Amino acid sequence: MHYAEAKGILSSKNGMNLYRGCTHGCIYCDSRSGCYHMNHDFEDVEIKKNAAELLEKELKSKRRPCMIGMGSMTDPYMPLEENEKNTRKALELIYKYDFGAALITKSDLVLRDLDILGEINKQSKAVVQITVTTFDDELCKKIEPGVCPASRRFRVLKKLRDAGIPAVVWLCPILPFINDTEDNISDILDGCIEARVYGIICFGMGLTLRQGSREYFYADLDRLFPGLKEKYIKTYGNRYEVLSPRNKQLMDFFHNICKIHSIVHDNNEIFEYLRTYDDKTGEKQLSLFD
Predict the structure, then answer these.
(1) Tens digit of each residue's pLDDT (9 = 90 or more) over 16-56
(2) Which bin fits 246, alpha (ψ -120 to 50), beta or left (φ > 0)?
(3) What is the pLDDT of residues 42-94, one digit of tens each?
(4) Nearest 5°: phi and psi at 200?
(5) What one-character-per-residue DSSP string does the chain give?
């Protein structure tokens, strides 16, 4: 890891990444793509050492409170966050200035900040989004080796439920010929139902591959699933969107189960929910972070 001074922290849509790069080692990670112009090794995480100062300055300058997003490119709860506490500091500032928070992670380290997330949720809204790709912990160790297994993520979802903090699950990516089975999707949905999640985001049963991420993914397929890379190349060539041959069947199953159990499964509706600031004090107007 290394430290760097950032020039700004919030995007035009009020999202932020406190770190650049990641140590989770997920074999499918899109953030490795060349289009993001990473100028250092992906695992050599860049820590924005002045992130808290920049965030406070930007929050103080805003005319109205809104939702602040975290983690679109880099997980805010990588292991190094335990010592750096950049995410914790950001949440404290969000609470201090009466903003809302919508963060996305794969880590159970988020439970460390359950207290401040609860306080944010009392005065506005805090939404925790958890990515889940497989219910099988052994498979999880292969495709997401540097992060807690799915079983621990479902424990996080239950603790969020018990704390009254809304949760959204990202059901993606689903890797063709690896975890694109009805049993896997059914088990994930059962966990979501038990945790009473607000919604589940799913763009289709597949993944996207670009220059940079494709090469990394194929190298890991060779290492973990010998012969599967050739099947991908034969089936998909150099396509950006790589959908499972079972996509329609699995998507129909997914939407049907969500509908039965009143889980929001329209992506646009969920994104609107994540963007919309909820003033529980009755003193502020709604604002969106995009």
Answers:
(1) 999 999 999 999 999 988 888 777 888 999 999 999 999 99
(2) alpha
(3) 899 999 999 999 999 999 999 999 999 999 889 999 999 999 999 999 999 99
(4) -130, 125
(5) -EEE--S----TTSEE-SEES-SS--TT-GGGSGGG---S-TTS-EEETTHHHHHHHHHHH-SS--EEEE-SSS-TT-TTHHHH-HHHHHHHHHHHTT-EEEEEES-GGGGGGHHHHHHHHHHS-EEEEEE---S-HHHHHHHSTTS--HHHHHHHHHHHHHHT--EEEE-----TTTT--HHHHHHHHHHHHHHT-SEEE-S-SEEE--TTHHHHHHHHHHHHSTTHHHHHHHHHTT-SEEE-TTHHHHHHHHHHHHHHTT-B--HHHHHHHHH----TTS-S------
* End-to-end Cα distance, the chain: 31
pTM score > 0.90 for this model? Answer: yes
Residue at token pair 């609860």: 118
Q: Encode pLDDT of 6-22 as tens digits.
A: 999 999 999 999 999 99
The candidate with the shortest Cα–Cα distance to 132, out of 165, 166, 155, is 155
